[in-house]
Amino acid sequence: MDPVSFVRGFRESSPYIHRFRGRTFVISFGGEVLPDGSFSSIASDIALLRSLGIGIILVCGADPQIENRLKEAGKTMGRTDRGPVVPGELIPDILCAVGEVRFAVEAALSRGISDSPMSGAEVRVTGGNLVVARPLGVIDGIDHHFYGKPREVRTATIRQFLEDDMVVLLPPVGVSLSGDLYLLSPEDVAQEVAVALSASKVLFLVDDDGVCDRNGSLARELTNREVTALLSDRKSQHLARESLLERAVEMVEAGVERVHLVNRHRDGALLLELFTRDGCGTLVSSDPFEAIRPAEPADVPGILDLIRPLETRGILVDRTREAVETDIGLYAVTHRDGKIVACAALYPYPDEKAGEIACLAVHPDYREAGRGAHLLAWFERKALSSGLDRIFVLSTQSREWFVERGFVPCRTEDLPPNRRMIYNHGRKSHVLSKKLDGKSTPH
Predict the structure, then answer these.
(1) Which GO terms describe its molecular function (predicted)?
(2) Can you give the residue ranges of every domain in the chain?
(3) Quick one: pLDDT at residue 441?
(4) From CA 140, how far away is CA 365, in angstroms rounded?
(5) What is the arithmetic mean of pLDDT over 70-88?
(6) Which end of the chain has fewer CB atoms at under 10 Å, N or C?
(7) Per-residue pLDDT tens for 132-189?
(8) Which of 280, 270, 261, 272 is nearest to 211 (CA)?
(9) Cβ distance 119 to 113 under 8 Å?
């Protein structure tokens, strides 16, 4: 491993490490992770998350194990649109299969071989009757018998386990108040537990990278409103992910901060999704109180109010009202409760597949929350969607800020010819450039 890259990546992850300490994450996965061997590396990453002070709740499924167990016993389990039909005689086989999964997960999390990622982790795993179940009942004339839904989550007990530095493991089985055992959907369990505990994140480990947009590209970040629009568009071909996306919307509307869909086959996917700005899956969050949008003519006064102080200090080049009005279609703004708190513009040079990020400004009262970086990332995605493969900036006083975000110094000769012709040699601005690779959304 390149030491420089390691140090840079480790430093870039530090804001996330600080932010996540003391938070609660729910991680849900199917029983498929055990026979294909992918859980070995996942377990190492879970142990690392716990060591960073993150409260971990694992929700495991057991569909393949249940299916194999019933097949060996010569039994079958029916299914409706609402879930499986579970007669009482299947419960012993189901419990054996679920127990197999639970012990396999506990074993993977308990490894401590020297010179392995789990060395010294000492992960303590606990569980119990933490989810109270109820029967689903008779739906459309069909009795689902011992298939149920979560009725209650014993949050106080779970919180105590997390405070005691334990990983909480929840199988897809719940006990009713009458003492009966019910098979549950792991997705139902994850959702109910996350909402009850106001979890910061729910991460579903799935078989691919996440959700694709209408153009077939990975959608790295979606708001609940965008998810709803995507699901209503039947041309988007999202039926395989429809249930998880609907759950994601319900969870963020109920107070869960973010829901992630992460590829379980990708080594280190949990760490990449959580500790890099780019992430590697699909993230669903609530509609923001603060949002970025293309600028409108009515935004000109607010933009001028933002940039005038920076022009006075020589940080930005002077722009007239007429110039801003003329170029307003190239601007975007961050608005917070109706107030413009940041702005920037993208000037494209399509012949060179390049674009200039200009007039980047953030209100002084809002400079500590990464708004400039979010606006820059927004423009990176816009540049990519416009067919550009690099962006550049001219800066007199913010060189280091751009370098920290992937820009590299270059020469004025590297500017597009039309931009080079109007370069102001009197300002002696630094020229910095960044190649775009499709990974620009902050997670």
Answers:
(1) L-glutamate N-acetyltransferase activity
(2) 3-285, 290-435
(3) 40
(4) 57
(5) 93
(6) N
(7) 999 999 988 999 999 999 999 999 999 999 999 999 999 999 999 999 999 999 999 9
(8) 261
(9) yes
Asked if 295 contacts 331 with a C-beta cutoff of 8 angstroms, the reply is yes
Mean pLDDT computed over every residue of the chain: 89
Q: Which residues, including other chains, have CB under 8 Å from residue 219's CB and lie 6 or more apart?
A: 210, 211, 212, 213, 226, 230, 282
Q: In the prediction, which pLDDT does 296 show?
A: 94
Q: Which top CATH class is 3-285? A: alpha beta
Q: How far is CA 258 from CA 37, 92, 211, 418, in A?
A: 28, 37, 15, 43
Spell out where 245-300 has E strands: 258-263, 282-285, 290-294
Torsion angle (degrees, nearest 10) of CA 183, 187, 192, 193: 90
In CATH, the architecture of 290-435 is: 3-Layer(aba) Sandwich (3.40)
Average pLDDT over residues 358-368: 85
DSSP reduced 3-state for 167? strand
Place of tokens 């708004």: 371
Q: How many CA atoms lie within 13 A of 187 on its CB side?
A: 17
CB atoms within 10 A of CB 187: 18
C-beta separation of 97 from 66 below 8 A: yes
